[in-house]
Amino acid sequence: MLETEGVTKSFGGVHALRGVDFSLAQGEIHALVGENGAGKSTLIKVLTGVYRPDEGTIRFDGREVSFHRPADAQRAGISTIYQEVNLVPLLSVARNIFLGREPRTRLGLVDVAAMNRRAAELVGSLGIDIDVTADLGTLGLGIQQMVALARAVSVDSRVVIMDEPTSSLEAKEVATLFDVARTLAARGVGLVFVSHRLDELWQLCDRVTVLRDGRRVHSGSMAELDRLGLIAHMLGREVAEVAREGATEFGDTHRRDQEPVLTAHGLQVRNRLHGVDLAVRPGEVLGLGGLLGSGRSETVKAVYGALPVRSGSVHVGGRPVRPNSVPHALRAGVALLSEDRKAEGIIADLSVRDNIALAVLPRFSRGGLVAEKRIDALVETFVRRLRIKAASPQQKVRELSGGNQQKVLIARWLCTEPKVFLLDEPTRGIDVGAKAEVQALIDELAEQGLAVVLISSEMDELVEGADRVVVLRDGAVSGELSEDRKTSAALLAALAGAAAEEEGGDE
Amino acid sequence: MSERLAMRTPAETPPKRRTRPRRIDADWIRRNGVYVALVLLLAINVVFTDNFVSEGTLRLQLIQVVPVLIVAIGMALVIGTEGIDLSVGAVMAIAAALIPLYIGYGTLVAVLVAVLAGAISGLLAGTLVGRVGVQPIIATLGIMVAGRGLANLFGGEIKSIRDPGIVELGSGSVLGIPYVVLIAAAVAAGAWFLVRRSTYGRRLVAIGGNKRAAELAGLPVRRVLVTTYVLCGLLAALAGVLLAARSQASDPTKLGLLMELSAITAVVLGGTPLSGGQVRIAGTVAGALLLQLITATLIFHDIPDSTAQIAQAVIVVAAVYVQLGRKKARR
Amino acid sequence: MTTALESPRPRGRSGASGRARLARLAQRQGALVILALVVLVATFTFDSFGTAGNLENIALQASFLAVVALGMTFVIMSGGIDLSVGSVFALGGVLAAWGAGHGTWVALLLPLGVCGLIGLVQGLVIARGGLPPFIVTLAGLLFARGLLLLISDEGATTYKVPPGSAFRELAQGSFLGIGYPVWIVAVAFAAGGLVLHRTSYGSTVLAIGGQEDAADLMGLAVLRTKVIAYTASGMLAGFGGLLMASYTSSGVTILGVGTELEVIAAVVLGGTLLTGGAGTVLGSLVGVLLLQVIRNVINQIGSLDSNWQAVISGTILLVVVTLQRWLATVQRE
């Protein structure tokens, strides 16, 4: 139904897509897979009219089409659901669904009553129970994602492209989303599905196309490809090699015989955390598991002083850390690699060098003036040690790949010589190669005696990477997996147990 | 001076592998267009304007550019934090209005009081923006409206200033260079040094680039913001004092009127993006000089005010368009 | 009247706590509360304040600014800003006064056409060229002022509306004892409220102001919507000037300096978020009235320097936005 043939697109001499053929049949759910930078998002943007291909053709319903703007693609019946919800938070659910196509009264004015009624019917038919007059922004992210899907349904889309729609959803919300997706496929809608959570692909998709370096390297039935085979295609490595090395780069467990360097007691954050206790020893990697909204990120942010705590205490090396003060936590030897790299991490227009040196400026200045030479030396050390691929330390961080941006941030925190390193989803959204490097680095740091708290949505990462896993639910510790009980099955059971008891919380 | 400073912009120092060899593209124009335009316009004037190359003319141009230049430097700092300060014109008027009131206590006291008033106004703006979280444009708009009213209340009608110290400050010179020009040069050099070499400067651009990330990196965001607005207020007040000293009068209703617009224009012409995260002091100096030279050129050639303003409008839009060209290309 | 223009919003289970809802109300209607208080106090303090004549005078004086504020409201809600309105206001007045010498229709259509054109060009440059509204309309301010000087011999000529011209009637006439400008403002704001809440154009404006990328990806006509907003703002600013010219029977060239800031202040006082995406047109009217009432009260206190008006307006603006910030935090909790 929707096909591309030999689509090529380049940006300033860099090829993002090279002669890609892709075809989507009616009523099928098609997985689009690749590392970051493989060309997935470029292909999606070509399909939805954000970019125009340099070469090649797009055919829709057998006819050659050329979309100049997203609106053109949409009018033709191609909708897109993005990772970040692309709706208007200050408008109501109903307005969001019908924006631009509101039902009118005879006078040509918007028929608000009819609009609300039809919106309620629509979301009801998708199995979502919400007040359609509520402002979208007051609802949970999962619900917002469904509203986006409802909008796609309401415009009678023939093709829906879902670009990482699940990355911020809870398991239960993912299940609902998949149900809705299957309903749509049964109605004959073609769906393109992109996700970094590989497990989801087998749950949902019929066929798969793998991209690497802007080329299509595989296309075929989803069921005929196993996990190892998929990763091999993505990486361009041999299947046996992947099997030997394991899916992650984590090594063995670490020594953990000393007194805890970080202890947190009874951390409370309004509406978020209700008394969380943590203790991490030097050289230990503590995994922090839990579903979205369980309070994982809030816990590390509270420890770091970036989230106002109501009560509770944090001690580092036996000494209390003043709550609600990032500078104080930093000085005590705590560092936080935030989950949201773009919004809370990098300063895109500053150089690699300035980004790395950002948190240590006071230590590297005298009389308010920056000690440039010492910073140069420091930056050079870290660029080499973390193998940051940048043209020069002066290159803007914006121009680096996601994985290298993440390494720059890790370097920023390592400069501060932390005793405790809090890592919130350190490998999310970075390509497989960089992922492996980051995982190996975490191991290395722990071996050198750093206490690491690792948050990850990937079970493999927690099970293989952490020495111990603390599972959170509803802002409190709900269980702990010690080293001997630490298996995927046990973790799944702990998470699932938590999920089963959770009733309709949509944080 | 500006040319020399321009040579040392950071983008040119490192040997980059991925950047293309130096050629004239949109990025180059954005960074250096203001200098080119300045040189071109100077050349045009040298050829076509009678008596342009005379000590008197050049000297007058330099003296006239001083207030805009000083205000624009403060503005550039604020814009670097992704802010804006609309109150600078009103602050100039307040500072100038205070001079006649306090001149009885001596020149120094009067000047200090005036400059202090600017700092206080900046402190208010900085507190509203940095601590309360009010949008810069609104916070400084309120101060602008209230400040102009206050200036009128303090100053009343036009007052002339006869104090010999103030007169000397406005009209005196050393080695043939007017004091006011020296002060402006010192301000520019100081600001350049601050942006380029101090921790404060680094923090300022980091905060302008990504405030949340700067917060999480432990930067004292609020303090830097407050400091920046205080500096801007201080500089605006200084400009007000110098302007009053030169004209030997204080006119609270007119002094500094629309100065915020000229200063913003100079900053933008100089290549500092309104989206923050970058401060280009040398560019701002050149921008102010260019603006002054444009006005002067039009006056030299008896082009009426109306045409001058229309021309200025077109220049501003063109300058911003050039500045934006690069960002678009990147997408 | 406040709720009449609001879209009905049943809040069955939106989940907002009572306190948050109160905070939200205060944020939106804070200016109304202050206006009511000031009017109340002034009525009891000054005998001359509450008289029909004075109140009508306030309404009339406020109407010129209100027209401009209506256009600004839509621009700000779309996430933009229009700094050119002061100059365009003055230009509209001069064009109207000049045009009145050539017939009433010229006096009406010329300013609307020229000012609308200025708005159109600004809108195109902003929407199509992607330039920041702040800078473009700043240039527009200079441009319009330059144009004004050009047609008025560098400001030396003040055009007069001929004594017998019907054009004078527009702002000097009255219906039911209330001046035409007040009626015009009432109709214009009612229409503005309908456009905002009951047309897809209104939703699109709010969508663009709230999340421009999203609006674009949803296939909304972002470009056209913005261009219309700026064109309307230019036209309305010109119309305000035209009314003023009719009222004063002349095209005063020095008008409108700083008007853009007064108008922005009024819109923000009225609860429209400067970041766009939310607001009401009625709020802007309240904002304009508040500023006008303050001016009037200061005039009532004969001994008070008129400069206090600026000081108080500015202070109120700062207090209100500080309160709004505070209320926003309360709401979030």
From TrEMBL, chain A:
<keyword id="KW-0472">Membrane</keyword>
<dbReference type="InterPro" id="IPR027417">
    <property type="entry name" value="P-loop_NTPase"/>
</dbReference>
<dbReference type="Pfam" id="PF00005">
    <property type="entry name" value="ABC_tran"/>
</dbReference>
<dbReference type="InterPro" id="IPR003593">
    <property type="entry name" value="AAA+_ATPase"/>
</dbReference>
<keyword id="KW-0677">Repeat</keyword>
<keyword id="KW-1003">Cell membrane</keyword>
<dbReference type="GO" id="GO:0005886">
    <property type="term" value="C:plasma membrane"/>
</dbReference>
<dbReference type="InterPro" id="IPR050107">
    <property type="entry name" value="ABC_carbohydrate_import_ATPase"/>
</dbReference>
<dbReference type="InterPro" id="IPR017871">
    <property type="entry name" value="ABC_transporter-like_CS"/>
</dbReference>
<keyword id="KW-0547">Nucleotide-binding</keyword>
<keyword id="KW-1278">Translocase</keyword>
<dbReference type="GO" id="GO:0005524">
    <property type="term" value="F:ATP binding"/>
</dbReference>
<keyword id="KW-0067">ATP-binding</keyword>
<dbReference type="InterPro" id="IPR003439">
    <property type="entry name" value="ABC_transporter-like_ATP-bd"/>
</dbReference>
<keyword id="KW-0813">Transport</keyword>
<dbReference type="GO" id="GO:0016887">
    <property type="term" value="F:ATP hydrolysis activity"/>
</dbReference>
<protein>
    <submittedName>
        <fullName>Sugar ABC transporter ATP-binding protein</fullName>
    </submittedName>
</protein>
Automatic annotation (TrEMBL), chain C:
<protein>
    <submittedName>
        <fullName>ATPase</fullName>
    </submittedName>
</protein>
<keyword id="KW-0472">Membrane</keyword>
<keyword id="KW-1003">Cell membrane</keyword>
<dbReference type="GO" id="GO:0022857">
    <property type="term" value="F:transmembrane transporter activity"/>
</dbReference>
<dbReference type="GO" id="GO:0005886">
    <property type="term" value="C:plasma membrane"/>
</dbReference>
<keyword id="KW-1133">Transmembrane helix</keyword>
<keyword id="KW-0812">Transmembrane</keyword>
<dbReference type="InterPro" id="IPR001851">
    <property type="entry name" value="ABC_transp_permease"/>
</dbReference>
<dbReference type="Pfam" id="PF02653">
    <property type="entry name" value="BPD_transp_2"/>
</dbReference>
